[in-house]
Amino acid sequence: MKEYLEIDFTITPAEGGRDILLALLDNLGYDSFEETPKGLKAYILEKDFNAEEIESLFIFHSDEYEVSYATDKLENKNWNEEWETNYQPIFIDDKIHIRAPFHEAHPEYPIELLITPKMSFGTGHHQTTRLVSRLMLDMDLKGKKILDMGTGTGVLAVLAEKRGAGEIDAIDNFEWAAENTEENAEANNCKNITAIHGDAEMLPGRKYDIVLANINRNVLMEDMKTYIDTLPTGGYLVISGFFENDFEMLTAKATECGTTLVNKIKEDRWMACQYQKQ
Ligand SMILES: C[S@@+](CC[C@H](N)C(=O)[O-])C[C@H]1O[C@@H](n2cnc3c(N)ncnc32)[C@H](O)[C@@H]1O
Questions:
Q1: 133-155 pLDDT, tens per residue?
Q2: 8 A C-beta contact, residue 173 and residue 162
Q3: Which end of the chain is more exposed for a tag (fewer CB within 10 A), N or C?
Q4: Where do transmembrane segments lie in this chain (predicted)?
Q5: In the chain, what are the domain boundaries?
Q6: Any atom of ligand 1 within 6 Å of the Cβ of 129
Q7: 4-77 CATH
Q8: Residue 45 CB: number of other CB atoms within 10 A?
Q9: Whole-structure pTM value
Protein backbone atom coordinates (compact mmCIF):
# COMPACT_ATOMS: atom_id res chain seq x y z
CA MET A 1 0.00 0.00 0.00
CA LYS A 2 1.22 3.51 -0.80
CA GLU A 3 1.68 5.73 2.24
CA TYR A 4 1.07 9.45 1.89
CA LEU A 5 2.51 12.22 4.01
CA GLU A 6 0.63 15.37 4.86
CA ILE A 7 2.89 18.42 5.22
CA ASP A 8 1.21 21.22 7.12
CA PHE A 9 2.90 24.53 6.29
CA THR A 10 2.56 27.68 8.36
CA ILE A 11 3.37 30.81 6.34
CA THR A 12 3.51 34.33 7.74
CA PRO A 13 2.01 36.32 6.13
CA ALA A 14 -0.17 33.58 4.62
CA GLU A 15 -1.63 35.98 2.05
CA GLY A 16 0.64 35.88 -1.03
CA GLY A 17 3.04 33.38 0.56
CA ARG A 18 0.53 30.55 0.20
CA ASP A 19 0.35 30.95 -3.60
CA ILE A 20 4.11 31.14 -3.98
CA LEU A 21 4.66 28.03 -1.87
CA LEU A 22 1.93 26.14 -3.73
CA ALA A 23 3.57 26.86 -7.09
CA LEU A 24 7.00 25.83 -5.77
CA LEU A 25 5.69 22.57 -4.28
CA ASP A 26 3.69 21.82 -7.42
CA ASN A 27 6.95 22.05 -9.39
CA LEU A 28 8.50 19.57 -6.93
CA GLY A 29 5.77 17.04 -7.76
CA TYR A 30 3.47 17.46 -4.75
CA ASP A 31 0.17 15.88 -5.70
CA SER A 32 -2.52 17.71 -3.91
CA PHE A 33 -3.10 20.84 -1.85
CA GLU A 34 -5.50 22.30 0.64
CA GLU A 35 -5.47 25.93 1.74
CA THR A 36 -5.62 26.46 5.50
CA PRO A 37 -6.08 29.71 7.46
CA LYS A 38 -2.41 29.73 8.48
CA GLY A 39 -0.97 28.46 5.20
CA LEU A 40 -1.22 25.29 3.19
CA LYS A 41 -1.34 21.51 3.46
CA ALA A 42 0.42 19.52 0.75
CA TYR A 43 0.52 15.80 0.10
CA ILE A 44 3.18 13.51 -1.32
CA LEU A 45 4.05 9.81 -1.31
CA GLU A 46 6.17 9.17 1.77
CA LYS A 47 8.96 7.69 -0.35
CA ASP A 48 9.18 10.91 -2.41
CA PHE A 49 9.36 13.27 0.59
CA ASN A 50 12.66 15.14 0.80
CA ALA A 51 13.06 17.63 3.67
CA GLU A 52 16.26 19.08 2.25
CA GLU A 53 14.58 19.83 -1.08
CA ILE A 54 11.73 21.65 0.68
CA GLU A 55 13.98 23.64 2.97
CA SER A 56 16.13 24.79 0.06
CA LEU A 57 13.11 26.53 -1.57
CA PHE A 58 13.78 30.26 -1.72
CA ILE A 59 10.67 31.12 0.29
CA PHE A 60 12.27 29.45 3.35
CA HIS A 61 15.12 31.94 3.12
CA SER A 62 13.22 35.07 2.07
CA ASP A 63 13.04 38.14 4.31
CA GLU A 64 9.40 38.60 3.33
CA TYR A 65 7.96 35.29 4.64
CA GLU A 66 8.43 33.00 7.59
CA VAL A 67 7.70 29.35 6.80
CA SER A 68 7.63 26.27 9.01
CA TYR A 69 6.05 22.83 8.60
CA ALA A 70 5.03 19.64 10.37
CA THR A 71 4.59 16.23 8.74
CA ASP A 72 1.98 13.61 9.52
CA LYS A 73 1.32 10.15 8.05
CA LEU A 74 -2.04 10.07 6.36
CA GLU A 75 -2.95 6.48 7.17
CA ASN A 76 -4.83 7.24 10.41
CA LYS A 77 -6.83 10.12 9.04
CA ASN A 78 -10.47 10.06 8.19
CA TRP A 79 -9.93 11.95 4.98
CA ASN A 80 -13.61 12.33 4.17
CA GLU A 81 -14.35 13.94 7.50
CA GLU A 82 -11.43 16.29 7.04
CA TRP A 83 -12.38 17.66 3.63
CA GLU A 84 -16.08 17.77 4.42
CA THR A 85 -15.44 20.25 7.24
CA ASN A 86 -13.19 22.40 5.07
CA TYR A 87 -14.92 22.36 1.69
CA GLN A 88 -17.24 25.27 0.99
CA PRO A 89 -19.26 25.52 -2.24
CA ILE A 90 -17.81 27.72 -4.98
CA PHE A 91 -19.55 30.14 -7.31
CA ILE A 92 -17.77 31.17 -10.53
CA ASP A 93 -19.17 34.52 -11.66
CA ASP A 94 -22.95 34.01 -11.92
CA LYS A 95 -22.57 30.94 -14.12
CA ILE A 96 -21.10 27.91 -12.33
CA HIS A 97 -21.80 26.45 -8.90
CA ILE A 98 -19.33 23.78 -7.70
CA ARG A 99 -20.50 21.90 -4.64
CA ALA A 100 -20.35 18.57 -2.83
CA PRO A 101 -23.50 16.41 -2.81
CA PHE A 102 -24.19 17.44 0.82
CA HIS A 103 -24.21 21.20 0.02
CA GLU A 104 -27.45 23.02 -0.76
CA ALA A 105 -28.40 23.19 -4.49
CA HIS A 106 -28.65 26.60 -6.22
CA PRO A 107 -30.75 26.05 -9.35
CA GLU A 108 -30.36 29.73 -10.32
CA TYR A 109 -26.82 28.90 -11.54
CA PRO A 110 -26.97 27.55 -15.13
CA ILE A 111 -24.19 24.99 -14.52
CA GLU A 112 -23.87 22.87 -11.40
CA LEU A 113 -20.91 20.54 -10.84
CA LEU A 114 -20.95 17.94 -8.06
CA ILE A 115 -17.37 17.42 -6.94
CA THR A 116 -16.20 15.26 -4.06
CA PRO A 117 -12.48 16.07 -3.98
CA LYS A 118 -11.03 13.53 -1.53
CA MET A 119 -7.30 13.75 -2.23
CA SER A 120 -7.35 15.50 -5.60
CA PHE A 121 -6.86 19.11 -6.63
CA GLY A 122 -9.78 20.89 -8.30
CA THR A 123 -12.73 22.09 -6.29
CA GLY A 124 -12.77 25.55 -7.84
CA HIS A 125 -11.15 27.01 -4.74
CA HIS A 126 -8.01 27.62 -6.71
CA GLN A 127 -7.68 30.61 -9.04
CA THR A 128 -6.41 28.43 -11.91
CA THR A 129 -9.49 26.16 -11.92
CA ARG A 130 -11.69 29.24 -12.07
CA LEU A 131 -9.57 30.81 -14.83
CA VAL A 132 -9.73 27.76 -17.11
CA SER A 133 -13.48 27.41 -16.40
CA ARG A 134 -13.98 31.03 -17.49
CA LEU A 135 -12.08 30.49 -20.76
CA MET A 136 -14.11 27.32 -21.40
CA LEU A 137 -17.38 29.25 -21.02
CA ASP A 138 -16.32 31.41 -23.99
CA MET A 139 -15.36 28.44 -26.20
CA ASP A 140 -17.52 26.30 -28.46
CA LEU A 141 -17.10 22.80 -27.00
CA LYS A 142 -20.09 21.18 -28.74
CA GLY A 143 -19.17 17.69 -29.99
CA LYS A 144 -15.46 18.44 -29.57
CA LYS A 145 -12.96 15.76 -28.60
CA ILE A 146 -11.17 17.01 -25.50
CA LEU A 147 -8.08 16.14 -23.50
CA ASP A 148 -8.09 17.32 -19.87
CA MET A 149 -4.45 16.76 -18.89
CA GLY A 150 -3.80 17.00 -15.13
CA THR A 151 -7.49 16.42 -14.47
CA GLY A 152 -7.31 16.33 -10.61
CA THR A 153 -10.92 15.87 -9.46
CA GLY A 154 -12.04 15.87 -13.11
CA VAL A 155 -13.77 19.22 -12.56
CA LEU A 156 -12.82 20.62 -16.01
CA ALA A 157 -13.74 17.35 -17.76
CA VAL A 158 -17.16 17.44 -16.09
CA LEU A 159 -17.59 21.10 -17.08
CA ALA A 160 -16.61 20.20 -20.66
CA GLU A 161 -19.30 17.51 -20.85
CA LYS A 162 -21.90 19.88 -19.35
CA ARG A 163 -20.98 22.33 -22.12
CA GLY A 164 -21.68 19.72 -24.80
CA ALA A 165 -18.26 18.19 -25.47
CA GLY A 166 -18.04 14.82 -27.20
CA GLU A 167 -15.41 12.34 -26.03
CA ILE A 168 -13.21 13.55 -23.15
CA ASP A 169 -9.98 11.90 -21.99
CA ALA A 170 -9.23 12.98 -18.40
CA ILE A 171 -5.62 12.08 -17.61
CA ASP A 172 -3.59 12.55 -14.41
CA ASN A 173 -0.27 11.13 -13.29
CA PHE A 174 -1.61 10.80 -9.72
CA GLU A 175 -3.53 7.54 -9.59
CA TRP A 176 -5.99 8.70 -6.91
CA ALA A 177 -6.99 11.57 -9.22
CA ALA A 178 -8.02 9.20 -12.00
CA GLU A 179 -10.14 7.20 -9.52
CA ASN A 180 -11.65 10.37 -8.11
CA THR A 181 -12.44 11.66 -11.61
CA GLU A 182 -14.33 8.46 -12.36
CA GLU A 183 -16.45 8.93 -9.20
CA ASN A 184 -17.11 12.60 -9.96
CA ALA A 185 -18.00 11.84 -13.59
CA GLU A 186 -20.56 9.32 -12.36
CA ALA A 187 -21.99 11.73 -9.75
CA ASN A 188 -22.62 14.23 -12.59
CA ASN A 189 -24.13 11.58 -14.91
CA CYS A 190 -21.31 12.14 -17.39
CA LYS A 191 -21.14 9.50 -20.08
CA ASN A 192 -18.30 10.83 -22.25
CA ILE A 193 -15.40 10.96 -19.79
CA THR A 194 -12.64 8.35 -19.74
CA ALA A 195 -10.43 8.77 -16.64
CA ILE A 196 -6.87 7.57 -17.19
CA HIS A 197 -3.82 7.30 -14.92
CA GLY A 198 -0.94 8.50 -17.12
CA ASP A 199 0.90 11.46 -18.59
CA ALA A 200 2.15 12.95 -21.88
CA GLU A 201 4.00 9.75 -22.75
CA MET A 202 0.72 8.12 -23.69
CA LEU A 203 -0.32 10.90 -26.10
CA PRO A 204 1.51 10.11 -29.37
CA GLY A 205 -1.10 8.74 -31.78
CA ARG A 206 -4.07 10.34 -29.96
CA LYS A 207 -6.00 13.22 -31.57
CA TYR A 208 -8.02 15.98 -29.90
CA ASP A 209 -9.78 19.22 -30.94
CA ILE A 210 -9.00 20.95 -27.64
CA VAL A 211 -6.38 20.31 -24.96
CA LEU A 212 -6.85 21.70 -21.44
CA ALA A 213 -3.77 21.56 -19.21
CA ASN A 214 -3.94 23.20 -15.78
CA ILE A 215 -0.69 21.81 -14.36
CA ASN A 216 2.44 23.85 -13.65
CA ARG A 217 5.15 25.78 -15.50
CA ASN A 218 7.74 22.98 -15.62
CA VAL A 219 5.40 20.25 -16.86
CA LEU A 220 3.89 22.68 -19.40
CA MET A 221 7.34 23.64 -20.73
CA GLU A 222 8.31 19.99 -21.05
CA ASP A 223 5.09 18.53 -22.45
CA MET A 224 3.53 21.40 -24.41
CA LYS A 225 4.84 20.21 -27.76
CA THR A 226 3.35 16.74 -27.19
CA TYR A 227 -0.01 18.33 -26.32
CA ILE A 228 0.06 20.56 -29.43
CA ASP A 229 1.02 17.63 -31.67
CA THR A 230 -2.38 16.01 -30.87
CA LEU A 231 -4.26 19.05 -32.31
CA PRO A 232 -5.41 19.76 -35.89
CA THR A 233 -4.92 23.18 -37.51
CA GLY A 234 -7.43 25.47 -35.77
CA GLY A 235 -7.44 23.33 -32.58
CA TYR A 236 -6.98 24.98 -29.17
CA LEU A 237 -4.60 24.56 -26.26
CA VAL A 238 -5.66 26.10 -22.93
CA ILE A 239 -3.03 26.23 -20.20
CA SER A 240 -2.93 27.41 -16.60
CA GLY A 241 -1.12 26.68 -13.34
CA PHE A 242 1.52 29.39 -13.70
CA PHE A 243 2.23 32.94 -12.57
CA GLU A 244 2.18 35.99 -14.85
CA ASN A 245 6.00 36.21 -14.78
CA ASP A 246 6.14 32.87 -16.66
CA PHE A 247 3.75 34.08 -19.37
CA GLU A 248 6.47 35.21 -21.83
CA MET A 249 8.43 31.97 -21.56
CA LEU A 250 5.35 29.73 -22.00
CA THR A 251 4.01 31.84 -24.87
CA ALA A 252 7.39 31.72 -26.63
CA LYS A 253 7.29 27.92 -26.31
CA ALA A 254 3.68 27.72 -27.57
CA THR A 255 4.60 29.96 -30.54
CA GLU A 256 7.65 27.84 -31.36
CA CYS A 257 5.31 24.81 -31.39
CA GLY A 258 3.09 26.42 -34.06
CA THR A 259 0.31 28.19 -32.17
CA THR A 260 -0.75 31.80 -31.66
CA LEU A 261 -2.13 33.36 -28.50
CA VAL A 262 -5.86 34.13 -28.81
CA ASN A 263 -6.89 34.87 -25.21
CA LYS A 264 -5.33 35.43 -21.80
CA ILE A 265 -6.88 36.14 -18.42
CA LYS A 266 -5.59 36.42 -14.88
CA GLU A 267 -6.70 36.36 -11.26
CA ASP A 268 -4.31 37.64 -8.62
CA ARG A 269 -0.95 36.65 -10.11
CA TRP A 270 -2.20 33.40 -11.70
CA MET A 271 -2.84 33.24 -15.47
CA ALA A 272 -4.62 31.12 -18.07
CA CYS A 273 -3.93 31.34 -21.83
CA GLN A 274 -5.65 30.03 -24.93
CA TYR A 275 -3.57 29.29 -28.05
CA GLN A 276 -4.75 28.25 -31.52
CA LYS A 277 -2.75 25.90 -33.74
CA GLN A 278 -1.85 27.47 -37.10
C1 LIG B 1 -3.31 22.28 -10.66
S2 LIG B 1 -4.01 20.67 -10.62
C3 LIG B 1 -5.38 20.89 -11.73
C4 LIG B 1 -6.61 20.07 -11.42
C5 LIG B 1 -7.83 20.39 -12.25
N6 LIG B 1 -7.62 20.14 -13.65
C7 LIG B 1 -8.26 21.82 -12.05
O8 LIG B 1 -8.24 22.60 -13.00
O9 LIG B 1 -8.64 22.17 -10.92
C10 LIG B 1 -2.79 19.79 -11.55
C11 LIG B 1 -2.99 18.31 -11.69
O12 LIG B 1 -2.01 17.84 -12.61
C13 LIG B 1 -1.50 16.59 -12.18
N14 LIG B 1 -0.16 16.44 -12.79
C15 LIG B 1 1.02 16.94 -12.36
N16 LIG B 1 2.01 16.64 -13.22
C17 LIG B 1 1.44 15.94 -14.24
C18 LIG B 1 1.94 15.36 -15.45
N19 LIG B 1 3.23 15.43 -15.77
N20 LIG B 1 1.08 14.73 -16.27
C21 LIG B 1 -0.24 14.63 -15.92
N22 LIG B 1 -0.77 15.16 -14.80
C23 LIG B 1 0.05 15.81 -13.97
C24 LIG B 1 -1.54 16.66 -10.67
O25 LIG B 1 -1.61 15.36 -10.10
C26 LIG B 1 -2.80 17.49 -10.40
O27 LIG B 1 -3.93 16.66 -10.21
A1: 999 999 999 999 999 999 989 99
A2: no
A3: N
A4: none
A5: 4-77, 122-277
A6: yes
A7: 3.30.70.270
A8: 14
A9: 0.80
